[in-house]
Design goal:
heterodimer, A: alpha+beta, 3-stranded antiparallel sheet, B: mainly alpha, 63% helix, 0% strand, elongated, mitochondrion (chain A)
C-alpha cells in the first residue's frame, strides 16, 4: 500500500462501514523481511564468481601434445583379470601361505604395475596441481607415457629418488643424478620399437630465473640419447645443481623427456664450458624450444621435485656462480610515527627521544655500553642473585627504572 | 479494500486534475493548427516580422543588423558549432568502440593461433 496517510485516513471511515474488520488486518505484515531475492532464486556465490570471471573457452582450451596409448578392449582386459583371479584362487600354495600368515606381497611388483597403469595419469594430475604444464607449456599438457627413474647418489649406498614433487635438498642434489628409462619401447604401443630410438632430456627450473619472470633456468640438457643410454647422449648443457635463494621457499626442478623422430642437430643450444655458471646464458624457454621443434619432438616423460635453501648454497654462490648470495626477507611496513613535538605530554622522555632516533645508532650505543661493562678476559659479570635486594640510590627515577629492568632482564634489553 | 482503492484513486485524480491547470500565453494559441501548418510554437520567435529587417534603404544599401538579430545569429552559430563538436565526439566514440572490438578479436585469434599443435590421438591416424 503506497497511499499516503492522509488519503488512507480520509477513506478509512468509508471502508470501515462497508468492509469487514479482517480485511484491514491483512494490510500490515509482522516480522522481518528477507533482503534481496529468496535463496532459491538468487544467484549462488559460485554462479556470481563465474559470471564475473568470464573465460573464453576457445582461449583457455587445453591441448594434448603427448603420446596416445593403444590399449586392448575392456572385454579383453576383464577376461584377463578374471583369469588371473581364478588362477589365484585355485593356487593351493598361496592359500597355505595366507592361512599361516606368511604371505608377503611383492611391493616392487605392485609399484611396477602401478607405474604401467594409472601411475602416469596420477603424475599428470600432480603436475597440474603444481603448475608444471601451465608454466612450461602454456595451455598444453601431456600424459607422460615413459616412466622416468631419476635418483641422486648420496653418501654410501643411499639414493634420493625423484618422485612427483618430493623435497630434495641442494646438498643432496649437488651432483648429476642417475637417470634410467626404458628407451627401447614404443610409447604408443608399449611394444619393442624395433629400431634405434633417440631421446632428449631437459631439466629446467621455472622458478629460478632472477631477471626474467617468464623464463626458466636450464640446469641440464642432453640430446640424441640412443636407446635410453643417457651416458651416450650429447650433453649440450652440463648439470648445474639447484640454487634456491634463502627466503623464497620451495622451487620446482622439472625433468622433461622428449622422444625424437630422428637424430637432431641441436648445436645452437650448446652451452660453452666457460659459461657454466653464467645464469643469463642459461636462460631457457621450454615453450619456445618445443614450438620450434614440435614436429620432431614429443614429450614422453616427466619427473620433478622441490628444493629450498640450505647452508651449502653460500659456498655455491661464491665459488661457482661468483655472485653475492641473495637473501629475501619480508619487507614489513614501518610503524606509524607522528611528528616530534616540543612538549610531548604524558610521554616518558627517554623512550620518546629514542623513538625518533636512528634505531641502528641506538643499538650501537647499547652494544657499546654492554661491552664497556664486560671484561675482555674474564667475560661478563655474573648476574645478581637477588636483583631487587640491591638498592638503587642517587639516580633519577627514570634511570632507576632502567637499571632495575636491566638487572631483571625485562623491558628494552629484550629488543636488542 | 477495493472501495478504499477506488476512493483513493478518485482523490488522486481530482488532485492531479486541479494541479495540472496552467495558464500561459502559448497555451492560448491553437497549437494543433500551428503544428499542422508547420509553424513554430511561439509566433514571435520566427517569421518575417522577426527575421527580416525593419526598414530598407531606397538606394540599395544593406540594412545593419539589429541587436536581437545579431544575438540570434550568434546563438545559431554556437548551436551549429556545438552540434558539429558533439557529432564528432559521437563518431569518435563509435570508431573507438569498433577499434577496441577489433583489437580484442585479433588478440583472441592470436592466442588461439599461438597454441601448440595438438597430438595425442591425432598421432594414431598417421
Amino acid at each position: 500500500m503506497s497511499f499516503s496517510n492522509l488519503l488512507m485516513k480520509s477513506g478509512l471511515t468509508v471502508a470501515v462501514r462497508d468492509a469487514q474488520a479482517a480485511v484491514l488486518m491483512t494490510a500490515t505484515r509482522q516480522g522481518h523481511t528477507i533482503r534481496g531475492k529468496p535463496p532459491g532464486v538468487a544467484r549462488s556465490l559460485e554462479q556470481r564468481i563465474r559470471e564475473e570471471n568470464v573465460e573464453d573457452p576457445e582461449v583457455v582450451a587445453r591441448i594434448n601434445i603427448g603420446f596416445p596409448q593403444l590399449k586392448e578392449s575392456r572385454s579383453a582386459q576383464l577376461k584377463k583379470r578374471l583369469e588371473h583371479l581364478k588362477s589365484q584362487r585355485s593356487d593351493k600354495q598361496l592359500e597355505q601361505l595366507a592361512r599361516s600368515n606368511k604371505l608377503i606381497i611383492d611391493l616392487d611388483k605392485v609399484q611396477r604395475t602401478y607405474v604401467k597403469t594409472t601411475g602416469q595419469h596420477d603424475l599428470r594430475l600432480v603436475a597440474d596441481h603444481y603448475g608444471i604444464f601451465e608454466h612450461l607449456f602454456g595451455s598444453a599438457y601431456f600424459v607422460p607415457r615413459v616412466p622416468l627413474n631419476i635418483s641422486y647418489q648420496l653418501d654410501g649406498d643411499s639414493l634420493a629418488p625423484v618422485y612427483n614433487g618430493n623435497v630434495i635438498k641442494p646438498t643432496e642434489a649437488a651432483k648429476a643424478p642417475q637417470i634410467d628409462f626404458d628407451g627401447l619401447v614404443d610409447p604408443i604401443t608399449g611394444q619393442a620399437a624395433g629400431q634405434d630410438t633417440y631421446w632428449t632430456l631437459v631439466a629446467s627450473n621455472p622458478d629460478a630465473h632472477y631477471t626474467n619472470g617468464t623464463a626458466e633456468c636450464l640446469h641440464w640438457f642432453i640430446a640424441n640419447i640412443p636407446n635410453g643410454k643417457v651416458s651416450e647422449g650429447q650433453v649440450l648443457a652440463e648439470y648445474l645443481p639447484p640454487f634456491p635463494p634463502r627466503g623464497v621457499g620451495y622451487q620446482r626442478m622439472v625433468f622433461v623427456l622428449y622422444k625424437q623422430q630422428a637424430r637432431l642437430d641441436l648445436g645452437s643450444y650448446q652451452l660453452a664450458a666457460a659459461d657454466y655458471g653464467n645464469l643469463e646464458k642459461r636462460t631457457f624457454s621450454t615453450l619456445d624450444f618445443y614450438r620450434q621443434h614440435q614436429e620432431q619432438l614429443t614429450p614422453a616423460g616427466l619427473a620433478f621435485y622441490q628444493t629450498n635453501w640450505d647452508e651449502s648454497l653460500t659456498q655455491f654462490y661464491h665459488d661457482v656462480l661468483k655472485i653475492k648470495e641473495p637473501v629475501y626477507e619480508y619487507d614489513f611496513p614501518k610503524p606509524y610515527l607522528t611528528d616530534q613535538k616540543f612538549f610531548p605530554l604524558k610521554q616518558p622522555f627517554n623512550l620518546y627521544m629514542d623513538k625518533h632516533r636512528d634505531q641502528k645508532q641506538v643499538n650501537k650505543e647499547y652494544l657499546e655500553r654492554k661491552l664497556a661493562k664486560t671484561h675482555p678476559f674474564e667475560g661478563p659479570k655474573k648476574p645478581l642473585r637477588y636483583p631487587n635486594a640491591h638498592p638503587i640510590r642517587d639516580v633519577p627515577s627514570w634511570l632507576r627504572t632502567e637499571i632495575r629492568k636491566e638487572r631483571l632482564g625485562t623491558g628494552r634489553v629484550q629488543d636488542y | 479494500m477495493l472501495k478504499i482503492t477506488k476512493i483513493c484513486l478518485a482523490s488522486s485524480a481530482t488532485s492531479t486534475a486541479q494541479r495540472s491547470i496552467a495558464l500561459t500565453a502559448p497555451r492560448a494559441i491553437d497549437q494543433k493548427w500551428r503544428a499542422a501548418k508547420g509553424l513554430p510554437e511561439n509566433p514571435n520567435a520566427f517569421g518575417p516580422l522577426t527575421n527580416l529587417p525593419d526598414y530598407t534603404y531606397l538606394d540599395g544599401r544593406p540594412t545593419p543588423l539589429g541587436a536581437n538579430q545579431k544575438r540570434r545569429l550568434i546563438k545559431q552559430q554556437e548551436i551549429a558549432t556545438r552540434i558539429v563538436e558533439l557529432s564528432g565526439e559521437l563518431e569518435f566514440a563509435k570508431q573507438r568502440h569498433e577499434r577496441l572490438k577489433a583489437n580484442a578479436e585479433s588478440e583472441k585469434q592470436r592466442l588461439i593461433r599461438s597454441k601448440l599443435k595438438p597430438k595425442g590421438h591425432f598421432l594414431l591416424k598417421k
